[in-house]
């Protein structure tokens, strides 16, 4: 009697093992041959959020519109503080390992903003502008060396330039010289 239960258990265990590994002899279809089921558990790979994919950086054409037209993607200019001002492009993305999804694991994603970040932090620059703006530290921090030296020699334009730069920073008119956006990770 115990032997019968043991044999039944082993047969049941072997069937479960075949179902888990997908090595059943009756079903020879692969994932690529199956039709996508939108009500199923798998999401299309191209619809995964950015936490589950790794995308290439946008190509910088450095103002060359002809190169962008030839390739069909890339950025002519980077940056912009308003959504409408930021150029968008296509990039190639790959799904991270061990993430299950349906469809090709490498695809192009459209609508990626042409934004680059450098080591410019808004809060740090604002503090420099308030505390040491009369010496031109805020302009030095932003990479605007010429105006920073002028601000240093005039002691912030006798205070007028100093206050004016604080206002320009707060309203968003004073940006880093290299065209990058403020680093969002403080």
Automatic annotation (TrEMBL):
One of its GO terms (cellular component) is membrane. The keyword Transmembrane applies. Pfam families: TM2 (PF05154). It is found in: Membrane. Residues 119-167 form the TM2 domain. Keywords: Glycoprotein, Membrane, Signal, Transmembrane, Transmembrane helix. Its main location: membrane. Residues 1-19 form the signal peptide. InterPro entries: TM2, TM2D1-3-like. The chain crosses the membrane at residues 121-140, 152-174. It is a multi-pass membrane protein. Belongs to the TM2 family. This is TM2 domain-containing protein CG11103. It comes from Ceratina calcarata. The lineage of its organism: Eukaryota, Metazoa, Ecdysozoa, Arthropoda, Hexapoda. The gene is LOC108626610.
